[in-house]
Write a structure and sequence with these properties.
The chain is α/β, with parallel strands linked by helices. The protein is 36% helix and 17% strand. It has 10 helices and 9 strands. The chain has helices at residues 43-52, 66-73, 95-107, 121-131, 143-153, 155-159, 172-183, 235-242, 245-267, 285-299, and strands at 30-37, 56-59, 82-86, 110-118, 163-166, 193-200, 211-214, 272-279, 304-308. A 5-stranded parallel beta sheet has the order 2-3-1-4-5, with helices on both faces. Strands 7-8-6-9 form a 4-stranded parallel beta sheet, with helices on one face. Helix 2 (66-73) links the parallel strand 2 (56-59) and strand 3. Helix 1 (43-52) packs across helix 7 and helix 4 (121-131) crosses helix 5 (143-153). It starts with 29 loop residues before the first strand and ends in a 10-residue tail after the last strand.
Length: 318
């Protein structure tokens, strides 16, 4: 899929203009979504979205094993309520098993929905071209021939689908937004998980950081004998580092920046964000700043976790 093509504020619906399917999960012990469709239409991305929403996802499980799998999920100690299973053209030999098992799944206490993804031929050809992948059915032939053969083989499966979604006009972000709209539990908001991280530049910049702020310009307690053995968790360090004009101004600007960008990250359906603060050794300034930012984020309405990379196994007093 392409990264961006449609307008930011458009509302995306499937090709059949069906209303969102909101399943009352207290009626069925297990909610099951079977994701299938044409290659290149977004099945893999849809499974990733469902996984982010708390579904237990399995790709290419043979349909003959569906009932046994759901029996395991329904065991009281498993506590599995939402499951998504992916199947594709490689499982054509098992389609008869699929049709035979769907009715049995409902009898076993599952709400089984068959979700079928597709896209227009020219869109699929472009997507295969962009990814430089051959079609899985006919890897030695032109992509369009594989697409046409796949449509023919999937015709019966498509006819049995509960919902058909045409992703021709969807970007990656559009598809994620559509999946959340359809399958997010009622009352369950899409929250942005924020991770705060303090670190020392002399030990390397963390590779998982999304936003990195260098706080080595702040007053350094390392050179104060009474403060040097402490960490940024200590109130004396926090007062020394953060109660200066430069620190107060810096924190105010960071607060304004985050108040602006965090709603935009949420709008783009971002699941998590790691914000890192670095000083020289990761003991004082970065720790104190990260702790203060946790308070700032709470004031903005965001909960956050925090990790101090360089003092996880600290031996110094705090």
């Amino acid at each position: 899929m392409t990264e961006s093509r449609k307008g930011e504020n458009e509302v995306f619906e499937d090709s059949m203009n069906l209303p969102p399917l909101k399943v009352e999960t207290n009626v069925f012990p297990l909610q099951l979504i079977i994701v299938t469709g044409t290659s290149g239409s977004g099945k893999t991305q849809a499974l990733k979205c469902l996984e982010d929403m708390g579904y237990f996802c399995v790709d290419n499980l043979p349909p003959a094993l569906f009932q046994k799998f759901t029996e395991l999920c329904l065991q009281p100690e498993k506590d599995v309520k939402k499951v998504a299973l992916g199947i594709d053209i490689r499982e054509r030999a098992f389609f008869d098993d699929l049709f035979a098992n769907l009715n049995g799944l409902h009898r076993d206490g599952c709400h089984a929905e068959l979700l079928f993804f597709e896209a227009q031929d020219e869109v699929l050809v472009r997507r295969f071209s962009e990814s430089r992948r051959p079609h899985p059915l006919l890897p030695q032939r032109p992509v369009i021939e594989g697409i046409q053969l796949e449509r023919e083989r999937l015709k019966e499966l498509r006819e049995k689908a509960n919902r058909i979604v045409d992703t021709s006009e969807f970007t990656v972000h559009d598809l994620k937004a559509w999946m959340i709209k359809q399958y997010q539990d009622r009352g369950e908001g899409q929250t942005l998980r924020i991770n705060l991280l303090s670190f020392g530049f002399k030990f390397g910049v963390p590779i998982d950081a999304d936003l990195v702020f260098d706080v080595r310009f702040l007053r350094n307690p390392h050179f104060i004998p009474d403060l040097q053995p402490l960490t940024g968790k200590h109130p004396d360090i926090q007062q020394f580092v953060l109660e200066t004009h430069e620190a107060i101004t810096f924190l105010r600007h960071i607060k304004e920046l985050l108040a602006f960008v965090l709603p935009l990250f949420e709008r783009e359906q971002r699941s998590y964000l790691t914000i890192a603060f670095g000083c020289t050794g990761g003991q004082h300034r970065s720790v104190a700043t990260a702790l203060r930012m946790q308070e700032v984020l709470k004031g903005l309405g965001y909960e956050s976790s925090i990790r101090h990379r360089e003092i996880q196994n600290e031996k110094v007093p705090v």
